[in-house]
Each structure stands twice: as structure tokens, then as C-alpha cells.
Amino acid sequence: MIETNSSREGFFTIALNRPDKANALTPGMIEQLIAAVRSAVDGGARAIVLTGRGRVFSAGADLEAARAGLATSPLWEELSGAIAEAPALTIAALNGTAAGGALGMVLACDLRIAVPEARIFYPVMKLGFLPQPSDPARLGALAGRSRAAMILMAGQKIGAETALGWGLLDRIVPSDALIETAGELAADALGAAPAHVAGVKRMIRG
């Protein structure tokens, strides 16, 4: 349910492929995502794109898996950590809505682009779960504390245009240009030495 493709040297696309379930994540899928990111890094990735198949990026945790404990699993934090620590330009290319725990991997990326129909929400207050440890800080760093509270505490669903204005998205693009745009944004990184990409990212991340 996780596809990895490398169309050119240093450029990896990792796609969620469970569109019939809105790309809802199971423990096995999260483990596959972690492995895919680490494999891309081991394969010399200078740019990694995360996207989904179908009309939704991810609805978050699979409902049955969430009830069985996935909602509070450390796997989410391991995934976002693997993405954040990757010595490559990471781009979330949202083919649709990103919800719940899936938003963590989006926040961990260096850049975020999305189709106009995409929405962002993280209903932890309503569901009675705490967000994953690094997610609130990353959300606040991008959008500010009040806007983080709008999402995490007030349960607001944020449309793409609003997310762009808040700094949660960097660009809104048509669905048929999503991966092409990600490739264009990755062009400079793909033309650079891996150590240079990693060094610039370290400086940005502090």
C-alpha cells in the first residue's frame, strides 16, 4: 500500500496507495513509510516527495487500527522524525485532504504543496487523543500559536487558500501539475552534491 518510485537519480516519490479507504494508515503502512524514507536516504536521495493516490492524501489512522491502539502509537513520531531528519529536500505533495496523524508527516517536510481542494485538520480535541509530541511545535512554528490552537483545540478545518495564507502551504497547484511542480521545486537540490543539500538543510533547521 506504499509505493516508491525513483524516476531520476536522487529523486524519490513515496505514495500512499489505499484510495478506497482514503489512504487511512495502518501500523504496517506506517512501518512501510518509515522504511521507504530510510531506504531513499540510503539510496542517495536529494529530494523526497510524499503524496497519495486518489482524492485524499490521508484520512489519518485507520479506524479499526486506531481503536486497537494506533492513535497513541510511537510509530507516528518515528515516521515524522525520519522525514525531518532526512538529509534531503522533503516535499509533501497533497493530492487532497490531510487529516489527523497523517498531518504529522506533512508538517515534518521542508515544503508543502497542495491541490485547491485540499483541507487540513487534526481533530485531537474532539477524539480525546493527544497529538504526537512534535506536531504542535511544528504546527506553531509554521502558522503561529493561535492558529495552531485553531486547528488542535478549536477543531477547525482549514482550506487550501487559508492554509497558504497561514504558512502551512507553500503553493497551490492543479492536480495534474502536482508532481511536476514538486520536481521543479527539487531541481536545485537534485543538481547539488548530497553533502551540500544536507548542509543547507541543517542550517535551516538549526
UniProtKB/TrEMBL annotation:
Single GO molecular function: catalytic activity
GO biological process: fatty acid beta-oxidation
Membrane-spanning residues: none
InterPro entries xrefs: ClpP/crotonase-like_dom_sf, Enoyl-CoA_hyd/isom_CS, Enoyl-CoA_hydra/iso
Family recorded in the similarity comment: Belongs to the enoyl-CoA hydratase/isomerase family.
Protein name: Enoyl-CoA hydratase
Organism of derivation: Paracoccus chinensis
